[in-house]
């Protein structure tokens, strides 16, 4: 049994001088996890996992920083880097998706990651495309699911596999992919998985654009057009706060998007944050404003949590004003 001094020395799980340990196979991953377990971490120390497809930006690094805090001083932070083919549809950017593992590892070394698990597809799917997959059910049939059939099924299948392989106490996901986060949380609840799921707020550039690995595809002019997404969401949030009503929230947001050059909207929705179902016009309380749009050839998503305030007297939602004839 290790002494407290030995445990304190052995449990310094921040990256060493050479950075985080990089593992490519399941066997090496198991060894890296077992080595941490042998240090007999304190009861409050946990393993935290962040799942990424690489091409890391500050939004990903926010997840890793939060993972470091969730894991505890002697905990283990494990980051997966895997471009999952199951979540890409025909004609999507699987082959073109940016990949730069050396850069990713360098960033993770500065952010507190202990282990980087970067498997190839034949490691994650040793028998090729899996016959048995996870279904996102109704959550996967609307919004992203309607425009990208099978996308959320592919996400949940790889998330479940990586949860089994990494066995974390806590898994962290970005709130920018709001429908994905909801689907993961529902899978964890419905399938009785023993892991805590933590959502981390969206990181934005100073101009308001939500960070995304796909932002690299945007030209300068397209990036300027893409700012309409965050601008529209902010305007919708203000309408909700002002008591204008759900219909006005949708109308204001839609109007800004429709006026934007090079922005083609896939969907705009004001939904229940627990079910992703559209809220009725009379809805008050929490809601989630979601948008997906194409700017040039780049598809972007964004969202904003809103609190739809009940209209005060004399401030009825549009279409409900009393007759003044």
TrEMBL record:
Q: Where is this region: Disordered?
A: 1-22
Q: In which pathway does it act?
A: Cofactor biosynthesis; (R)-pantothenate biosynthesis; (R)-pantothenate from (R)-pantoate and beta-alanine: step 1/1
The answer to keyword Cytoplasm applying to this record is yes
- Write the Enzyme Commission number(s) for this entry: 6.3.2.1
Where is it localised? Answer: Cytoplasm
- The residues listed in the UniProt record as binding ATP, with positions renumbered to this chain, are 53-60, 174-177, 211-214
Q: What class of enzyme is it?
A: ligase
* Coiled-coil ranges (or none): none
Instruction: List, alphabetically, the PANTHER family matched.
Output: CYTIDYLATE KINASE/PANTOATE-BETA-ALANINE LIGASE, PANTOATE--BETA-ALANINE LIGASE
Its family? Belongs to the pantothenate synthetase family.
The protein's assembly and partners? Homodimer.
* Name of protein: Pantothenate synthetase
The UniProt gene name for this protein comes to: panC
